[in-house]
Design goal:
Layout: E1 5-9, H1 16-27, E2 34-37, H2 47-62, E3 66-69, H3 79-91, E4 94-97, H4 102-109, H5 114-123, E5 127-131, H6 132-136, E6 141-142, H7 145-150, E7 158-159, H8 163-166, E8 172-174, H9 193-203, E9 210-213, E10 217-222, E11 227-232, E12 236-240, E13 243-247, E14 252-254, H10 280-289, H11 294-311, H12 315-331, H13 335-347, E15 350-355, E16 358-363
Parallel strand pairs: 1-5, 2-3, 2-4, 4-5, 8-9
Antiparallel strand pairs: 1-10, 6-7, 9-12, 10-11, 11-14, 12-13, 15-16
């Protein structure tokens, strides 16, 4: 069962009010391993600048190193890249994602089953902090904001990650709930407006509530203590069957009082994780078996190579083992696996040059 904290921010993830929230969450971790997921804004042309802004904010305002985790295109990524990203998420204990497009983020994350990795973080006492566009993906249903508000599509739902449902809270999440940028027209409910939100409410098949979070406001769900608290300038709201309940900033309630909250009775089963293989040779053996663990084993080899490169410990030994295995695959005619191992080395910034008598390598 989850024992960490899920934090949903309506907006203002780097504003002073939310800085206090981040700082309190980080202070509760023994050793902080914080990562940023760039996927929600991965379609933009300023991805590096957006990431750097977040890295600088965590460094200056929170005295915390934020590791950038980049995953911007599922279709163009390799199996090793996908598993390496998932592995990095699972190894973190503070996972942040924020602004961008919810529909774009979902298009990349759904194929990964990212909700399983986020659940792993929470199961191990970590923090998942999603704001703005990323927050929209947490429920069973996700509103495609850009498509409706900007492109004029009729209201509809996308299938969300449903991390909330896996944790016992069946709902849809709408951040920016009190947005007033439209001034003389309704841009509340994350720019949808109340009228279009009403249309969306009628489309939810199981009558799940809509959870609205105001801007510069955070909802913290503490699964270990079974509480839900609201912090910030605004409030949160639960809408169900034309009834609205306001959760006032500064309030705290027990999860058992939450509409449609049910303690999860079964643990969500994700893809098989590698628990016993840790050395390069053990991982190489899993690659050689060519089973469902092969891609995970290769991504673990990338992690080991990167770590060895940083520490300068046994790096040559590790790379030589991978190259020997790759050469054996080529001799046996198993070219797909040989290419996969080349991907492993490439991911670790190692350049391979093949020649008649073998292969040479160097660090790019």
């Amino acid at each position: 069962m989850a024992k960490g904290k899920l934090v949903i921010m309506g907006s203002g993830e780097t504003a002073p009010g939310m800085t206090k929230v981040h700082r309190e969450l980080l202070s509760g971790l023994d050793e902080v391993r914080a990562v940023n997921l760039d996927t929600p804004y991965g379609f933009q042309l300023n991805v590096p600048q957006m990431t750097q802004k977040l890295v600088d904010y965590f460094k200056v305002s929170l005295q915390t190193d934020l590791k950038p985790l980049s995953f911007i295109n599922y279709e163009k990524s390799s199996g090793v890249e996908r598993e390496l990203f998932r592995q990095s998420v699972r190894e973190a204990n503070y996972v942040f994602a924020g602004p961008g497009s919810p529909s774009y983020a979902l298009a990349q994350w759904k194929g990964l089953d990212l909700q399983e990795d986020l659940l792993h973080v929470l199961d191990n006492g970590g923090v998942v902090c999603f704001s703005s566009a990323a927050a929209l993906t947490l429920g069973a249903f996700t509103a495609p904001i850009y498509e409706i508000y900007k492109a004029g599509a009729n209201p509809y739902w996308l299938e969300g990650l449903n991390l909330m449902g896996l944790l016992g809270i069946n709902c849809a999440v709408i951040p920016h709930f009190n947005n007033a940028e439209g001034q003389d027209y309704d841009t509340s409910c994350c720019y949808l407006g109340l009228e279009r939100l009403g249309c969306l409410e009628e489309m939810i098949p199981d009558g799940s509530p809509i959870l609205g979070i105001d801007e510069h406001t955070a909802m913290t769900i503490d699964f270990e203590n079974q509480t839900m608290s609201i912090t910030g300038k605004g409030n949160a709201y639960r809408r169900l069957n034309d009834e609205v309940q306001t959760l006032i900033s500064g309030s705290e309630t027990f999860l058992e009082n939450e509409i449609h909250y049910q303690t999860p009775t079964t643990k969500h089963q994700g893809k098989i994780k590698i628990e016993t293989a840790t050395t390069p040779l053990e991982l190489a053996a899993l690659v050689e078996k060519d089973n469902e663990n092969a891609i995970m084993a290769m991504s673990k080899l990338v992690s080991l190579a990167n770590l060895a490169q940083e520490k300068q410990d046994d790096f040559n030994y590790l790379v030589e083992n991978i190259i020997q295995l790759r050469n054996r695959f080529k001799i046996e005619g198993n070219y797909d696996e040989a290419d996969n191992l080349r991907d492993v080395l490439t991911e670790s910034k190692i350049k391979i040059v093949d020649h008649a008598s073998g292969s040479n390598w160097s660090i790019r």
